[in-house]
Amino acid sequence: MSQKSLHLRLGIVASLFALFLMFYAIPNYVFAPSNVRNIILSPKFWPYVLAGFTAFIGLALLFNAVTSATDTPFEDEETGHPEGSAPWMRLGALGAIMLLVMFGLPLLGMVWTAMLAFAACAFLFRTRHPVAAVVCAVVVPLLLYAFFAHVAGVAIPQGEFVRLP
Amino acid sequence: MKLRTLGSALALGVGLIAGTAMAEYPERPINMIIPYGAGGATDISARTIAEALGTAAGKPLIMANVTGAGGATGSVAVQNAKPDGYTMLFARVGSHSVNPAMKATLPYTLDDFRFVTVYEINPVACAVRPDSGIESMDDLVAKVAEGGVSYSSSGVGSLLHLAGAMVLKEFGVEDPLNAATHIPQKGGGEAATAVLNGTVTFICTNTSALANFVANNQLKPILVTTEEPVVGFDAPTANDLGKPRLNALVGWTGIAGPAGLPDDVSAKWGDWIVEAAQDAKFSDTMASMGSVIDVMSPEEAIDFINGQYAVFKALVDELGMRIEG
Amino acid sequence: MSLMDSLAAGFALVGNIEAFLMLFIGLVVGVIAGAIPGLSATMAVALTLPFTFAMTPINAILLLLGVYKGGIFGGSIPAILIKTPGTPASSATILDGHPMAERGEAGRALGMALYASCTADAVSNLALILFAGWLASFALNFGPPEFFALILFSLTIIAGVSGESLLRGALSALAGLLLATIGLDLVYGTNRFTLGNPNMMGGLNFIAVLIGLFAIPEIISMAWNPVAHLGKTRALGKSRCSWADYKNSFKSIIRGSMIGVFLGSIPGIGAAPAAFLSYSEARRTSKNQANFGKGEIEGVAASESGNNGVAGATLIPLLALGVPGDVITAIIIGAFMVHGLQPGPMMFILNVDIIYGLFIGLIVSSVFLLIVGSVAIRGFRFVADVPKRILMPGVLILCIYGVFAVNNNIFDVGVMFVMGWVGYIMMRNRIPAAPFLIAFILGPLLEDNFRQAMLMSGSDPIILFRGPITWFFWFLTCLTVFAITRSTLRKRVPLS
């Protein structure tokens, strides 16, 4: 990708986001009391200022993209991934792991969720040391639990099923 | 090999649950949520009593600070917890009487909690800079009439916010919201600093937050709201000045569980707190922080909090301070 | 009482093994806690506090100060090794420290972090001892208008950490400013972008955003291409920080220390902005400017001296005025009060022995930090040798535990994950993360102080120019903006 096309893309996204803020998000999700004495004290003032700046930067990016003559790609750009669609699958899988962690934390407790997440990630990354990975997956969360719960006195979530001392 | 390691880990886990057979409450450590930051007045109070309480309960208490939104984040965590007595809250005046009185948007009400005790009362004092030319409440009120008076607080819906308005109102200022400017700060420390550096004229807050400034003659107290004088604060009490209604304006720390807390758990807490309050270390620390130990039974605590809430709510409605939206 | 008498009284207090032992233990605890992401210096101090109730005041306070100072240095260890800042203050250290570790120079980066920290610590302590009274009375002149001007100036740091494009840096900063508006409004207490969720009312947790933005994208990159790191030399750095390295960075270290002392003595700024300001100043004046952000050792030196310079200086408002400069000193004030001491001007008269005892302890702490730090570096360097595809899941788990521990809230773990994806998208689009972070810290300060100033003056903007301090910062801001504009037009910092 070249700087020109990157800035074109970012410029469009920033401008659209600024419009979204100004006409939807701020009116609907920022609440201001009816008795605000001065407009600059309103809770909405600063978000509108920021939305304005976002629009400005978005336009500047667009302007920059349109006026820049050169269209040379970045030097350190990754050109075509050798594995085709596999990286996208892995990104999706990692996202799924994170989502499952969020559900697992209150249900299973932090230690068991962390063990599963560790193992899943290590295999997702196709580690060359599967045995070490499994051992670490069991030991690391337990050690962290021992430290956080018993040394630092943090109430680590325990979950519904198996409770650690 | 992989499977075997996993299997043995699971077996270990199953062995662990087997150990916890049904027994009398508490059969495991109790999570105590402190809805304010580490090192604050609530935190110090909670952590000092925790050890003695743990001894009385027979199981340790695990302290967890869940801060944010003036105590609301931590309070919601307890509101939504299972009412089994293993998640309890150190409630404070800000989170459980000022906030419910002032904020329509608060995600909880007093009915979502069952109080088991209030164990500590903090007097409130009002103070100004010694070089401000204000010597008494009368001077302050006279100055309000001239205009340009402001007061600081640790945020909207904090005790300090309400206290500033309430004190002025009691001393005859008709419309304290417009006669004096409220300048909120990010926390209690910042609120006191704002008086020191002249950003605001006065502050009304817990005596513990002002003690070191008063001892160092950096701030001059002009009022304490309790019936009795406060040690180290050379200022008239609300009763001396004929304003006994201000006696309701005090800070407190108590312990609450979710609304569905069983009766036997509540009764147990009532016993433990009486025992814990005898602890010498606890009373020494509380005294050095300027607090008064006043252990209330569950019933007394509920009456006390509802009484204070009613006073605050009436004031908020009268002045139109309620926050909607 | 003369200075000599005071010193003698101070020595009498700390002249026992126990006081120094407490200081030493404090530093060890602090370095370890700082090195664990999420378990910040603040938490370590808070957790140590209950242990100090039974001690004599001087031992208690030396222990807490040890934890504080150790924690600020300890944060740089994971920042360099696994791109996860242990404390917010060490986020600037990532910018150059982590690229150095990737190059196999972890040892050199850690060494420089330690030497810069100790030097800055010593400078900061000296400033406290010599200028406490003067700096404190100066700091009291900072009301909302002065803060507003100072923070406006600090925002110009963004230009210094934007990397290859100022426009993309500004975009990143705006995203940070917008995200920081989530939560309850300061003046009216109304909801802003909270979507009705009570967990959002307190605003997004800073540590969760920080770790999400820096550490998680590394893990996501690993999923994108698990073999990208192979073939690069990452083996542990046997490399060490040489005397020549130290000498070359000395100017930046001293400048960073001064910046730290200045910002530390003003309550309410904290160590992270000091580190970034020191970094951007070092970058601006260095002859290796082009190498900054790619693993320049001077960058590590500047950021670490900036944040450690704050550590001693935050005690200036604490001791001289009784005003806490940040959350950590607020906890330490609690420790004073539990022991019946009232920090403030009177303490220099009533408890002068304790004050001088503290001073002596502080001077010793710089030396102790050097010892504890050297041992810690040796202990932690092995992290660089762990196979990366096992290290990364470990980092993920560590982040989950750490972010939870900050506020005991599972919601924060979710914030961290979401910010991780935001950070990854930014990385893929060549948007730098540092401006985002600076804006996230400074944005609320800017807005709050602006509105407080407007409340003070009844919405009259003239108050923003009310005295020499504001004029000074307005002048600096204009000067910097002018310099940035000029160099951009000359294409030295390419706009495009």
Automatic annotation (TrEMBL), chain A:
InterPro entries: DUF1468 (IPR009936). Residues 17-157 form the DUF1468 domain. The chain crosses the membrane at residues 6-25, 45-66, 97-125, 132-156. The keyword Signal does not apply. It comes from the Bacteria. Pfam families: TctB. Keywords: Membrane, Transmembrane, Transmembrane helix. The keyword Glycosyltransferase does not apply. This is DUF1468 domain-containing protein. It comes from Marivita lacus. The lineage of its organism: Bacteria, Pseudomonadati, Pseudomonadota, Alphaproteobacteria, Rhodobacterales.
TrEMBL record, chain B:
Residues 1-23 form the signal peptide. Keywords: Signal. The keyword Signal applies. It comes from the Bacteria. The keyword RNA-binding does not apply. Belongs to the UPF0065 (bug) family. This is Tripartite tricarboxylate transporter substrate binding protein. It comes from Marivita lacus.
From TrEMBL, chain C:
The chain crosses the membrane at residues 20-49, 147-163, 169-188, 200-224, 253-277, 318-342, 354-378, 390-411, 471-489. The keyword Transmembrane applies. It holds the Pfam family TctA. The keyword Nucleus does not apply. Keywords: Membrane, Transmembrane, Transmembrane helix. InterPro entries: DUF112_TM. This is C4-dicarboxylate ABC transporter permease. It comes from Marivita lacus.
